[in-house]
């Protein structure tokens, strides 16, 4: 069967991208990465993509006069590949409403908090400052509300007494690296559907 096709959008380290590449390599993820798209020319994730011999597109937003023009160009690039799913993996760029509407239902993101808690940046620090006993990750469809789209999966970890931002971030990333490829695999199996704002996940035995 032809593998499910995705593009992955990154801005930084790309450890989530790596987790997807690794699962494809060990054949536990039946997916083809058509391209890795970065809005930062120096993102380490680009090295990971090179090593995996994946097509790379770099589109730097400072070269575009406005968010709308940048987003229109990004749509063009993505459409050249015709992916079935657009995977944001540490893509640090707020997308315009037009962009989000254009790809609504076909674009997912991973966020390091138990949304709706702690949208935006510095989530680990906020968890520690609030004295929360639980932290976690959320994988969601992208909507025009920042980190606010329909939720597909959440997983929590327990905050330990001596946790620092770095330790928490590291521990949560380990979970992200398992959860994100799993969710992408569910998509490839046609198990995830979005009806307006309602997400359904079919369990295996219903197929
Ligand atoms: C992850 O914590 C992810 O949840 C967030 O950005 C970080 C990206 O890390 N959206 P990486 O670039 O995949 O290593």
Order of helices and strands: EHEHEHEHEHEEHEE
Structural class: alpha/beta
Unique bound compounds: 5-O-phosphono-beta-D-ribofuranosylamine
N- to C-terminal distance: 17 Å
Q: Tell me, rounded to a whole number, the average pLDDT.
A: 96
CATH evolutionary superfamily = Formyl transferase, N-terminal domain
Radius of gyration from CA coordinates: 17 Å
Parts with pLDDT < 50 across at least 5 consecutive residues: none
As laid out across the biggest beta sheet, the strand order is: 3-2-1-4-5-6-7
Tell me roughly what share of residues is in helical segments: 25-40%
- The dominant shape is globular
Just give the CATH class.
Alpha Beta
Number of strands: 9
Number of individual domains: 1
Account of the 3D structure:
A hairpin with a 2-residue loop joins β8 (192-195) and β9 (198-201). This protein is an alpha/beta fold and 207 residues long. The longest helix is centred in the C-terminal third of the chain and has 24 residues, at 165-188. The chain has a single domain (4-206), classed as Rossmann fold, CATH 3.40.50. α1 (15-25) packs across α6. A 7-stranded mixed β-sheet has the order 3-2-1-4-5-6-7, sandwiched between helices. The chain has a two-stranded antiparallel sheet with strand order 8-9. It is 35% helix and 25% strand. The protein has helices spanning 15-25, 44-51, 67-81, 97-102, 123-130, 165-188; strands at residues 4-10, 31-38, 56-58, 85-88, 107-111, 134-141, 151-158, 192-195, 198-201. The two termini are 17 Å apart. The mean pLDDT is 96. The radius of gyration is 17 Å and the shape is globular. The chain is built from 6 helices and 9 strands, in the order βαβαβαβαβαββαββ. The chain binds 5-O-phosphono-beta-D-ribofuranosylamine. 5-O-phosphono-beta-D-ribofuranosylamine binds at residues 10, 12-16, 45, 89-90, 110-112, 173, 176.
């Amino acid at each position: 069967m032809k593998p499910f096709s995705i593009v992955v959008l990154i801005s930084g380290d790309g450890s989530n991208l790596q987790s997807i590449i690794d699962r494809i390599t060990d054949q536990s993820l039946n997916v083809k990465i058509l391209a890795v798209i970065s809005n930062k020319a120096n993102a380490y994730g680009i090295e990971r993509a090179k090593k995996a011999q994946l097509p790379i597109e770099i589109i730097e937003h400072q070269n575009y006069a406005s968010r709308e023009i940048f987003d229109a160009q990004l749509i063009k690039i993505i459409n050249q590949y015709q992916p079935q799913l657009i995977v944001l993996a540490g893509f640090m760029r707020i997308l315009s409403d037009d962009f989000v509407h254009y790809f609504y239902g076909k674009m997912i993101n991973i966020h390091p908090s138990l949304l709706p808690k702690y949208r935006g940046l510095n989530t680990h620090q906020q968890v520690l400052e609030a004295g929360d006993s639980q932290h976690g990750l959320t994988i969601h469809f992208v909507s025009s509300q920042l980190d606010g789209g329909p939720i597909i999966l959440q997983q929590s970890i327990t905050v330990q007494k001596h946790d620092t931002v770095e330790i928490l971030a590291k521990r949560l990333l380990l979970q992200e690296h398992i959860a994100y490829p799993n969710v992408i695999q569910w998509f490839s199996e046609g198990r995830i559907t979005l009806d307006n704002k309602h997400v359904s996940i079919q369990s295996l035995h219903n197929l």
